[in-house]
Specification:
Length: 467
Amino acid sequence: MFECHTIKMMFKKIPLYVLFLIVSLANVYGQPVTKKQKQLTRVLFVFDCSLSMSKKWENSTNMDISKKILQNTVDSLSRLEDVQVALRLYGHQHTVSPNRDCKDTKLEVPFYKGNTAALKQKIKEAQPRGTTPIAYTLEQCGNDFPDNNSRNIIILITDGVEECNGDPCAISAALQSKGVVLRPFVIGVGLDENFRKTFECVGKYFDAANEKSFKNAMNVIISQALNSTTAQVNLLDQYGKPTETSVNMSFVDSKTGVIKYNYIHTINNRGNPDTVQLDPLSTYKMIVHTIPPVEKDNIELNPGKHTIIAVDAPQGNLILKSNGNDQRGLKYILRQKGDLKTLLISESDKTEKLIIGKYDLEILSLPRTMIENIDISQSKTTTIQIPSPGIASVSFSSPGTGQLFLNEKNQLKWVYNFGETTVRENLILQPGTYTIVFKPKAAKESLYSVTKEFKIESGSSVQVKLN
């Protein structure tokens, strides 16, 4: 009974949002979170200790109410695994004077496990004294995180705007683009709503008009900082239905260009696109690795709410078939119609899934076969059939210089160069009429050139001798 009562009392002391965090981090849709899924989150509190924090606010001051909420938050976060907290203060070391100190900022408690007592003591000791160097402070925050491998988050608590001619927005953008931190959070303590625009470029802004709204803002921030958000990707077919699947999706951080997630799109056992977990603090570009790939930019998630991401990805199939055993595994190059860029190199008898549209094929037969304007339709398989080749057994009386041409509309199109030391070669050729022009190496005059014409039929062989 004593143990049960003690446990109940412990849970009563833990805020509801922390209990929610513990449960959600330990259990995602009934599945235990594996070690691979866990990632260290580092939360850096940046606390305004400028003189204006001594202003009266409700029944206390900006400073005292902020300190109380911050201490409670630090205490709650200490109960969570894979979370580290640090504290940077500004405007706390020097009093305001005509020559204000615009470098008055210091990391008072760095990141390490078990620093809760030190954090709470420094918060308790903090007194409002100086000015508000927000830009310089944010710049220094870039050195406070040990590495970029964790989820690095800044929570700025302030009651004033930049007073040292810095540009907090530019500094915040630079930190995010370098991958040092995710998008910061800003809590405006007793600020006028007009200040929102000043801070929205720095990070996600929360207005704390009173103590209650301050607590609510902090709860929401901590929840967003520590939880992933669910998303469903609908790969739409030609008819707008989410039937396409089984392809990798890369989620790229729009600020840094770093790939944050790779998921193979899956239709679950209910017949719906499966749910994936994403960090709500990033804006993403999603690349769906179809052929060719499709992209969707500026994906923003609503933290705590299920997000549906739709992208057009209608697909059909292509397969190259050859009647001849000699052309099994015959390679081909795939391009979009009218575009010289290579989309794919594949081979015969292998089915490839493609975005619907028009394509050109260059088959690496001898000679190369060009097939243009191939139509790939929704959920259908387009089969390209090429005829069986024939075999030409070519022999020369002596080594020399020889070239093979295809006769087409009274023109010679180059196909192949024979080796200068060769006297016999077997060539697998597509059906057609060919010409060989040959000159022995020992002959020193062009008039000794020999021309030989022959025909290749599908599945047949021919002997070609040049004397």
